[in-house]
Amino acid sequence: MRAPHDPNLAQVRQGKILILGAGAMGRLWAASLPLGTARFLRRANSVASDCQYYFRPLDGQQRTVTVTYCDAADVVDVRLLLVTTKAPATLAALQDQLSALHPSVPVVLFQNGMGSQQEVARHWPDRPILVASTTEAANRPAPEMTVHAGAGHTWVGALTPLGQACLHEAVEQLAQSRLTVSAEADIHQRLWRKLVVNAGINPFTALLDCPNGEILHQPLYRQYIDPLCEELYQLMVREGLDAPSPTELRSTIEAVAHSTAANTSSMRSDVLTGQTTEIDYINGYVARRGQELGLDLPVNRMLTDSVKMLTNHSSLG
Ligand code: PAF
Questions:
Q1: Residue 5 above 80 pLDDT?
Q2: Which of 135, 208, 254, 260 to mutate to test the pocket of ligand 1 (most atoms within 8 A of CB)?
Q3: Band of the pLDDT at 314, cuts 50, 70, 90?
Q4: Does the pLDDT at position 300 exceed 50?
Q5: Where does residue 203 rank: exposed (0-12), middle (13-18), buried (19+ CB within 10 A)?
Q6: How confident is the prediction for the chain on average, in pLDDT?
Q7: Could you give the CA distance from residue 65 to residue 148 in angstroms, rounded to a whole number?
Q8: Residue 265 gets which letter from DSSP?
Q9: In whole angstroms, how large is the CA radius of gyration of the chain?
Q10: By the 8 A CB rule, do 268 and 209 touch?
Q11: Which residue is catalytic, options 16, 86, 194, 308?
């Protein structure tokens, strides 16, 4: 077994970390945790025993990673469940799995956008539910290859009272990886910052079918980015959040578009591979939440409808 990277972590109690969702983010965590720690949860109707893939870390030293698939009921000493499914699939995936998992096991949600995490916390208010907001970048240029495309930071906060009680232990477990992880008291503000970045980058990359950096030069982006930031600002104010000005929101979006210029966003990738996008949990969430709070947010509605037309998937309403 690989030694923990930080000698201060030598005290961390070893156990298994289950991961639900073997996409790019799930594979990044599985490859980064100490050898033998991670297990992928087998999805309903699957008989797979192992998941084997090539992993290219930031230093470029590609290696093969093998992660065992298991059923929740068969694993003893589970320390954490990481949920790295796409936002639209999360609730149903957990409904299939959680009853087999001891109620004290902390569940850490990694979904993009907003809404799916709150749905999970509402369904299981008596479980330790935590949420992570990460800027780690991972992608799968081919099904058998996972690339750690950019170093980031992962902030973890609690969504339920029991989540709060195990926050620090969950962070210690995650920090056994090579990734930078910290506890965050104001996770809501972090989730909003990421929502703003996703709302300002993802739909444009999907509609224009281009990498993140290219949107900045496109007329569609240039026409809508200021009214979009104005809508995001209005909603943040209405939510009672600490809202940066629309100009600051645009600068944040553009800083991320520059620093990830060559990356394919998760939404563009979903469109290219014919999967349901997370638009309902990004611009769609903003439009719906605005409506609930008495705000009409037409740019978010237009972007939501336009992305849905690309994939033809049904609306949340
Ligand atoms: O969803 C994504 O792809 C990422 O969150 C982001 C920030 C747009 C970078 O690619």
A1: no
A2: 260
A3: very low
A4: yes
A5: buried
A6: 93
A7: 13
A8: P
A9: 19
A10: yes
A11: 194
Length of the chain: 317
pLDDT of residue 317: 38
- On whether the CB atoms of residues 56 and 148 are closer than 8 A, the answer is yes
For ligand 1, atom 1, name the residue with the nearest CA: 266
What is the C-alpha separation between 312 and 271, in angstroms, rounded?
Answer: 10
Q: Which tens digits make up the pLDDT trace of 225-237?
A: 999 999 999 999 9
Distance CA 158, CA 180 (A): 18
Ligand 1 centroid to residue 78 C-alpha, Å: 30
264 lines ligand 1 (CB under 6 A): no
194 is catalytic: yes
Angular region, 274: left φ>0, alpha ψ -120 to 50, beta rest: left
In 3-state terms, what secondary structure has residue 104? coil
For 205-222, give the DSSP string: HHHHT--GGGGGG-HHHH
Strand partners, 41: 70
Widest CA span in the chain: 55
Burial of 45 (0-12, 13-18, 19+ CB in 10 A): exposed
- Angle between the N-to-C axes of helices 90-97 and 116-123, in degrees from 0 to 180, rounded to the nearest 10: 30
pTM as predicted: 0.91
37, 28, 84: which is closest to 56 by C-alpha?
Answer: 28
Does residue 250 contact residue 267 with C-beta atoms inside 8 Å?
Answer: no
What pLDDT sits at residue 76? 86
For residue 14, pLDDT over 90 is answered with: no
